[in-house]
Amino acid sequence: MLDLNSLRIFQKVASLNSFTAAARALGLPKSNVSRSVARLEEVLGTRLFQRTTRDVVLTLTGAALLDRSSTIIANLSEALDYVGSLGGQPRGILKISAGVGFGVNVLAEQLPEFLRRYPDIGIALDLESRPADLVGEAVDIAVRLGPLPDSGLVAVRLGEMRRYLCAAPAYLRRRGLPKTIEDIARHETIEMPGPDGRARPWNFSRGGETIKLDVAPRISVNEALTIHRLVLNGAGIGILSGYICAPEIAADRLVRLFSDWSAPAVEVNLVFPSRRELAPAVRAFVDYMKEVSRPGVLWMSDPLSEQAVAMRHGLEAGYKAE
Questions:
Q1: Rounded CA gap, 138 and 135, in Å?
Q2: Residue 150 has pLDDT above 60, yes or no
């Protein structure tokens, strides 16, 4: 009979390419690990590893078993973490996927408090410029910016992020200040490529008026933090997230262009695979992110947003009334 624990030990040996390292990671004697793999090979009637004095290498059969068993083991670990957490605090490893910029500027600030609240939860944070395959990569929850495709994933909306058209003073001294919004298309711009690899149009609105600019970026880059640094260093004009560029605008290191025109805001969502009941660690993270995603905090701290301006005007009116 196949022992699921032997399967788990086999996966650890395969991932570390070492019986000794696997034993250390699992907290088991090396002899136990060797016997477990040997029993699995006996049940399956085939060798799973080629062993030498220096290396442990998967056979073709071993590689096939690892490929097909990884999801099973991940689901089993998730089930054990879920059942084990029902009687107490959420626990287990929570795999979170996010973009690099959001990970560096937001999650790196918010996760320490989350971990203090939930000492039995560990985090595996995967930062990528491309959206992760939640099911294929066994991701528990992801932060997604922008419109969501109809993918069958469950989404929890956290809010929206304002963006502004910006340039550095050095760039404007070199190329001159654009006179109209249409002039932007004739300037050096910096932008992310679209999903098809081609340039994205820039859309702006003012009252009931809208305009679409077909820009040909001089620099195309797939990471928002790099766009911010390039704009700040005078490489061109870009559309930047408000919470990142607002302090630079206040310090005169960036110039906001055409403040009467608005770029579309970006939705911020948490997404996770559709399940009848969330694992406690996932539910804890969703509730925590909803709690801390409020005006005035990190990515919602943008002092130039319409909401912040309205709040500021309300406070000023209150002071005058007194």
A1: 5
A2: yes
